[in-house]
Every structure is written in structure tokens, then in C-alpha cells.
Amino acid sequence: MSAVTIRNVEFLNNPARFLEPYKFRVTFECIMPLQDDLEWKLIYVSSPGQPEYDQELDDCMVGPVPVGVNSFEFESPSPSPSRIPPEDVLGVAAIILTASYKDQEFVRVGYYQNTEYDNEEMKETPPQTILFDRLVRELASKPKVTRFMIKWDTDNGVTQPPQQNFSTRPDAEHPRFGSGQSAFQLPPFGAPNGSMNYATNSAAVPPAHPPTH
Fold first, then answer.
1. Chain-centre distance for alpha carbon 21
2. Structure confidence at residue 155 (pLDDT)
3. Predicted pLDDT at 177
4. Which residues contact 149 (CB under 8 A, 6 or more apart)?
5. Are the beta carbons of 184 and 144 closer than 8 angstroms?
6. What pLDDT, in 10s, does the model give residues 105-117?
7. Burial category of 152 from C-beta neighbours within 10 Å (exposed 0-12, middle 13-18, buried 19 and up)
């Protein structure tokens, strides 16, 4: 069982222009005192299977973290156009939010991102040279969440929460979404939204699987 669980990720500007920063609010629950801060990173994956093109867009430290429900807003720059292979600009990419404690990643939340031109003519006949200022992006509401068991604080009277056993379901399309103890599959972009709410651009994170007895 994780000491920190993400409860919600709310996008504050989705859809948006491709070159606009990402803005979102993360709500999480902490069930035990933590000695150190939490580290959060946002990663853009343009080319599955080619990690050399991944871009770490930004990172931030959050702390001290009190026990209970907490939230913070995260603003990150957009990907650098010069580092994206031209053939991978349009269509589906991925955004991954990760959280770590003492250099141990304990959760990653992945979203498909669809990028296209802002008018029908350019969609049907894209310019030979990519015009980034005419591109728009939209993140799929339903995330894939992967949790990893890590070592939380165990000294100074702080007790590590009891561990749970989770099923593993790797993602063949986006292996860097992760394949830890609990994985949730994203639908193809444009698939039915299910319980996600586009009106609020809010993506509720599914709870962890119950313990296996």
C-alpha cells in the first residue's frame, strides 16, 4: 500500500495550442508523515520505442507534505519542436506524470495526446513544413495509472504502510507508461469517454486494486 495516492488530475487548459504550457492541478492523499519532499516530473513521449526522443518538460518538489488530502498546481512548458521527429508531430503522442520519493518512482500517470491542425483544410492537406503555431493538442481524459512499491520511511518512529499485491498488465503500445503493480489501460484516442468528465477536464484516478488474499 502506498503512503501517497493520487486522487485526481484536473487539466486547466485542455484542449490547448501545442505551444502553450501545460497547466493542471494534482490532488493526492498522504496517509503517513513523510521525512522528505515529493518529486513530480512531466515527460513528453513523441516516439514510442525511441526513448532518446523523450523530453522531460519540467519537475518540481512538493513539501513538506502533511497527512491528509493535498493539492498543487503544476505548470510546465510545451515540448521543444526541434527535438520531435517531423513524422511524429501529428497524431498520437503521450504525456506522463511521475511522482517519486527519495529517488524512487512510486506512480506514473500516462495520457494519450492527439495533435492536429486547427482547421479542416490543413488537416486534410498538411503543409510540407510543420507550422507549430497552427497546431492544437488534446489530452485523452482517461489515464493509465501504474503504481510501484517502494521503500517509504521506516526509521524515527515512522512505519511503512503494509504492502499489497497487485496484478500487472503491461502496455505494449506505450511500454514507458509502466508495468508496475497496478496498471490501467488507456482507450484509443477518441474512444468513448466512460466516466471521465470533459466539461471539467478532470481525470479521476482509479483506486488501487484490493489486496489479494
1. 15
2. 54
3. 53
4. 2, 106, 163, 180, 181
5. yes
6. 999 999 999 999 9
7. buried
